[in-house]
Write a structure and sequence with these properties.
The chain is an alpha/beta fold. It contains 7 helices and 7 strands, in the order βαβαβαβαβαβααβ. The protein starts with 10 loop residues before the first strand and ends in an 8-residue tail after the last strand.
């Protein structure tokens, strides 16, 4: 993958950044000399930001709460003068067949995975200028159906649609919006999958292995800096979608 030219320091907001993919994305951005605001619900995000260094700040944020997100984005802009990249990574997975999926679980997933990104876009927009970039983190199940994943699949399919609409609406302001689809990536979210189920999943991946958080983070960094890319869906899944 060709590296994008690094012209100036960018200011990032990454949600769900206390662990897994979000933390890997924040670290990759910081490694390129960019400034990164890490958003997450728990206090661990404060420690992770301190570990990254002076070009990072951690904020305790609930993406399902518009006021919480607005306050956090204002703090980022106050400290750094604006926002250049928003990565909507925060996610929640609660599975269950339709007959057993509770209304509470359904709503919690939709609130986090679909309303959450919308809240973040609305909060960041006043500080995103021309050349700004929004990267939404989708999922294979948002493009292909999987039994037992009604809430998660619906939320991620909705995020794919939202990405398309935002790309059209925000293009006139010079803001690009894209969707990155991870495959099976080794993170805390996938750690609970049984060894038997994981083996079956890996058998369906043409490259024959899980991806890593750093591999996905590098793709996100590249997409964020691609000046003529908007409304695109970029899959980094080891070839999984080819077989579904």
């Amino acid at each position: 993958m060709t590296q994008q030219p690094k012209l100036e320091t960018r200011r990032w907001v990454v949600t769900g950044a206390s662990r897994g993919l979000g933390l890997a994305i924040a670290r990759i951005a910081a490694s390129h000399g960019d400034k990164v605001a890490l958003f997450a619900r728990g206090e661990k995000v404060l420690d992770e930001a301190r570990a990254i260094g002076d070009n990072a700040m951690g904020l305790i944020v609930d993406v399902t709460d518009p006021a919480s997100v607005s306050d956090a984005c204002a703090k980022v802009a106050e400290r750094w003068g604006g926002i250049d990249v928003l990565v909507n990574n925060a996610g929640l997975h609660r599975g269950g067949l339709i007959g057993s999926l509770s209304q509470g679980d359904w709503q919690a997933v939709i609130d986090t995975n679909l309303s959450g990104p919308l809240n973040c876009v609305r909060a960041a927009l006043p500080y995103l200028g021309a050349g700004g970039s929004i990267v939404n983190i989708g999922a294979v199940v948002g493009l292909r159906g999987f039994a037992g994943d009604a809430a998660y699949g619906a939320s991620k399919a909705g995020l794919a649609g939202l990405t398309q609409v935002l790309a059209i609406e925000l293009a006139r302001s010079g803001i690009r919006v894209n969707l990155v689809i991870p495959g099976m990536v080794s993170t805390e979210m996938t750690a609970g999958i049984s060894a038997r189920a994981k083996a079956r999943l890996i058998e369906s991946i043409p490259l024959g292995r899980e991806g890593t958080a750093d591999e996905l983070a590098n793709v996100v960094w590249w997409v964020a800096g691609s000046p003529y890319m908007t409304g695109s869906t970029i899959s980094n899944d080891g070839g999984l979608l080819c077989k579904l």
